Amino acid sequence: MYKTKLYILLILIGIISCKEEKTTVATTTDHLEKKVNNLLAKMTLEEKIGQLNLRGTSSRVKGALPEELKQAVREGKIGAFLNVMNTEYVDELQKIAINESPNKIPLIFARDVIHGFKTIFPIPLGLAASWDTKVAEASSRVAAVEASSYGVRWTFAPMLDIARDSRWGRIAESPGEDPYLASKLGEAYVKGFQGDSLNDPTSMIACAKHFIGYGAAIGGRDYNTAIINKELLQNVYLPPFKAAFKAGSQTVMTSFNETNGIPASGDKKLLKDILRKQLHFDGFVVSDWNSVTEMIPHGFAKDEKHAAEIGINAGMNMEMTSKSYENHAKKLLEEGKISEKQITSLVADILRVKFRMGLFKNPKRDANNSGNLYAKEHLELAKQAAIKSSVLLKNDKNILPLDKKTKIAVIGPLANKPREQLGTWTFDGDKAHSITPTMAFTKEEVAFNFVEGLSFSRDTSEKEFKKAVNAAKKSDVIVFIGGEEAILSGEAHSRANINLPGAQEKLIKELAKTGKPVVLVIMAGRPITLTNIIEEVDAVLMTWHPGTMGGEAIYDMLFGNQEPTGRLPVTWPKTAGQLPLFYNHKNTGRPASKEEFVHIDSIPIGAWQSSLGNTSHYLDVGFTPHFPFGYGLGYTTFQYSNLKLSTNKLTNSNQLEITVAIKNTGERKGEELVQLYVQDVVGSITRPVKELKGFKKVLLKSGEEKTVKFTLSANDLKYYNSELVYGLEKGDFKIWVGKNAANGLKSSFVYE
Ligand code: GLC
Asked: Is the pLDDT at 514 greater than 90, yes or no?
């Protein structure tokens, strides 16, 4: 059964070939509510409070389960566990819950299964670069099959935080900077994790996180303050969560940050008015690790009891790891600070999900599900995902793909690091299964000479430089594989300087002095600023942290078996000083322009104060990114022509059909990601200069031409205005169809 499903999903991403499956989204029925209410009626207050408790454990607990833990389950004081990775513990705890606790309510076991469980896929920012919802769905389906074999039925994913600042460590886990792309991916992840039915033993309930605005942390400093006006919240940060809920995500996680002065775990407006009333979410909310009691350092709660009061009154259902509800809910009730009705309602949401998961009928881990860990199909999917995620940023003189007879010097601190290439949030991925680039080159009998040059990405020692340079001199091409160790991105790992760490830049410059072509392959959890070395290298291939099969994927791309087809899901800055930087920005009253910009090095001595063009730019780095959103090269070239609109008058009763001819003007077959952007030129609030409204992949043989079609309706263009009315004002629109956010064939239409 599972294999069929996986094959169908492999089909979807074009590895094999067939039809699509639909995912049933859970509904709330009277019958379900009756079961929930019947159970609630039997529960004591203590047991209700117990369901609100997500107990954290360490996956490194050894020996027998602590008696305290078993007793707490026996007394119904725990609703779910996090990080119980020993299947015997899972089975033992569940057995106690369903046989010995007062109302035999099953536990849910949770884990951060973010981009794979055992088989590791590219980091989510990499998967976002694939712009491929089928890859997103297939990879999360594989993760669910593997993780559920360990009893994990709840994953804390997908992370749907819009990220506009590459200094932020968690941009690695994000779907990038665009709400449209993030929404498509979020929907696909939820479908993959939850599968066709929530009560399938290989289904893991999803958790859309972090609600809300975590990626807007000021300065890209993790956990920091987010200031988001109500329109931006509705138009940029909420859409991916809406898509996840529409796809049926059963849980949502509050974020660590405050937004506009209110920490998310205590934000009543957010969790009741927006989440429940506006978005009709009917699953349950889980706090992030200790984020309820962190309202104390936030200065929003005076103590633990006050934090519990705020969380419960805000409608935050399940408390992760901190114990404020467990310690104070009963007292708060006696003091009239909260009501039993509130507690009952919070528990009802959790029981509803447990019923939907079929846990009451089928609480035990499916011992027959081996998870097919590291199955051939899983590894193949991981390799294809790594290829589809990789972005070719530079390829001067078409140095890539390399001829298989090319003698290469492989140099750099990430050429053979099985653990580092997995990236952040990969607790369960076993590096022993990683295929590194040097392992792949060896297997494929590539003629290569390997000298690390630096032993880890932050290494500043130059003791191996000479040996590396000598190896380079004896080669035809230098392949430098560098970037960031896994630990340099992810939670709490923001960087103010996002250049290549350590002495990598210095080594690349030394290598370039040999006159040999340099191909830079980057493994990193974020865009890396390349301004210092971009002229020293002939090609740049960004593979993010590519996962278990990264080495084979890199081999296939470097030697042309397959082309990298990724496109940037985030704007790539020249320097960290430009951040936050994103394509869908506002025009301002003084938009930057080439005509008015004078570079700092060209300013005449004693220049008159207002002689430099008063527009929004930096004197030293200008106003454009290094590479724009949606950018990526391939191994062929494409020509866009004949942009046509079916009408230039869009109304509420028609649709706009947009067609464009795409021709493969290169020697090799290739895939192009055709992107559709729109600008609402005048709005009752200022509107972005561009917004992604569609994308399509087209595969063309050399010389082949195809017409690509998009359709747009007024609904696709609506936005929330300053009164939070979701609508569209009549007026002029611009439209582009192109290969990235910075260029494309342009046209216009009127909405009337
Ligand atoms: C972390 C993260 C969250 C994760 C949770 C459980 O601190 O913020 O994304 O799911 O704790 O590990």
From this structure: yes
